[in-house]
Amino acid sequence: MFTRPVRKVKRFLPVDAWLERYPTKERKNNKKTAWMDLLETYISRSHIHGLYLLFLPTMRRRMRFLWSLALICACSVLIYVSYLLGERYHSKQFKTIVAHSHASIHHIAFPAVIICNRNRLNWSRLPEVKLRYNITLAQEELFERILTAYDGLSFHQFNVFDTLQGEYLDDLNHLNFTQIVTELSWRCDEILADCHWQTASRDCCRMFRPRRLPLGLCLAFNELEQRRGTDTGINTGLLLRLQLHEDSHAPGNMGQKGFLLNVVEPDVWFGFDIEVMPHYRTNVAVTAVYHYFDDSTLSLPSRWRRCVMDYEQDSEHFQTLEGQKYMLENCQAECQQRYLMRYCNCTLDLFYPPSEYPACRLKDLPCLSSHNHLLQNFEQVGEQPYVHREESGLLCECLHNCKSLTLVTDMRKSVQQPWPQANSSRLRNTWLNVYFKKPSMLVYKTNLIYTWVDLIVSFGGICQLCLGCSIISLIEFIFFALFKVPQFYWKRARGELDTTIRA
Hints:
Number of strands: 17
Radius of gyration: 41 Å
Distance between the termini: 57 Å
Mean pLDDT: 84
Low-confidence stretches: 418-426, 498-503
């Protein structure tokens, strides 16, 4: 049986397809000419220096290579410097400058002046307190010993409760000693007299109100009103007479007599103590330094700029006393409460505003005494390699407010009465004068060294230096690369260029 061999069928391509698959030399030259024409239209209008020299038909190969090398070097410098600029912008470094060397002091409120008697309690009211709380004869000795400890109590002196170690305290544990101490504390009419504000005589009890402090119960001026001082110099601020009343002090407290003074910003809970001694006229001159972070820094997290704004309640560093504005000192006071809770599971409400922390009862006071050595100092984060401490302190990650005021006090004392007279009363008056020292203050501003505006300006400068181009040049290049070149190949794929060539 014979089979007929299968013959291969020859297919004939159309002319257009044949030319597309097997282009002639003339066709190749035409395509190359079309591409060069397109490239020339961009190069002739481009503002990138040196780019057109790479495509000049008359340019020799050696010169084309040298210009290519020069352009590569320029691009390398551009990329490297742009990287350095980006690193500089990303590092977010700050600088602090003097924004105003003579800003008016009238822009800020007069300081809050807080006065505390070193002997916190008026012992003359003790008999009526005993009657009110039904203290028996068997309880009197312990009751007086507890109040004597409260008479000299402050946050760093919990050792006054050492005498309660090992004592049976259940019989008096039901008493609210914070309330009892409040009833025994000095009233404004008992220790303050002859008050003057801005050279005008005022009622002391209308100007001062009771105030809790880590020193106990004290009297505060200008905490809520935030009056502004109009004049500067001695006797232009707050002038008053302090009455010691040594006869009404606790007989068991043999500590130093006198007063403690805090001069702080009105929103600050406590500050550094200033000792005011009897028989002296104490003049306290106050100068102010204001420091703020400008708006360019507020977009950064608080851990970068190392300060906290009042509205940043979600910040990890936002910790303040309940109901109080965020300030460094308020954060530290809140930290004190947390350490009291850690060691004794309670806080001494006599020192702080009302909060949700449980208040220490009488049976908790020996615990405070036993941990007094751990509550003496604040410890900064990272200071362990540089500061030697026998005991650890309070580790509080508290930052300044981004708009903070620092009050600098200059104290001058002059002797009023070198010694008491033979038949004089033991009232022992002391004059206190607090005033603004000068009508101006320093204002510091912290801002970013390198902002996004500086980044754009620097990038534009390096682009001009290396390539001589601008934003418009980049837009032209992007338009050519993303629109003109794809359009050229799209037309060629559809045969529009071939038609043009054949025509």
